Amino acid sequence: MSEERKSANFEAKKVVVQEITEKIKAAKSVVLVDYKSLTVAEVSELRSKCKQANCEYKVYKNTLVRKAFNDLGCKDFDNDLNGPTAITFGADETGAAKLMVEAAKTYEDKIVLKSAYVDNAYVDKNGAKALATMPSKEELVAKMLGSMQAPMSNFVGVLNNLVAGVVRVLNAVAQKKA
To answer: Distance between CA 155 and CA 117 in Å, rounded?
Structure first.
């Protein structure tokens, strides 16, 4: 192989590693899965589900993904990056894990959860499964706001009834005097 061809190939790989690194940095979560024997139709369906969930499903060479994680200072994925590996980049902390756990159920023995990367930290297989059971950040915020709003609504209702009662009493007194 000529030196020029090796250099071009090396540069192309550097570009892909940079792309992977940027995707990891931009994602709130990254989930690695082992995929085997998926048909083209199943992969297309999975990519479509990912797109609907605001996630991205990609397959890269393990060595390039390993290099990207190593560049980010995370060497925990070295053991997980063996065999066929697909990566799901999620826009939130739990969406990609939920999607891949569901896919593992849908495509029995064809998709196996390996690990995840959330909040700049390695999450093992069991942690990724647990992550899939958690509500998303948006759901938690909505629940919290709802629980905070309920007492305020009740308080406003009590004040309204109190004021309405006072108005009724004053109106009754005014009618008696008139």
So the answer is: 44
Helices (H) and strands (E) in the chain, counts: 6, 5
pLDDT band of residue 141 (cuts 50, 70, 90) is: confident
CA Rg value for the chain: 27
In the structure encoding, which two tokens stand for residue 73, read together? 């200072």
Residue owning tokens 């309405």:
164
| Tokens linked to 146 | 């709802």
DSSP secondary structure string for all residues of 100-130: HHHHHHHTTTTEEEEEEEETTEEE-HHHHHH
How far, in Å, CA of 112 to CA of 6, rounded? 35
What pLDDT band is residue 81 in, cutting at 50, 70 and 90? very high
Strands (E) across 13-54 are located at 29-35
| Angstrom distance (rounded) from CA 140 to CA 121 | 21
Whole-prediction pTM? 0.74
124: left (phi over 0), alpha (psi -120 to 50) or beta: beta
The Cα–Cα gap between 95 and 131 comes to: 9
Which token pair is 41? 């139709």
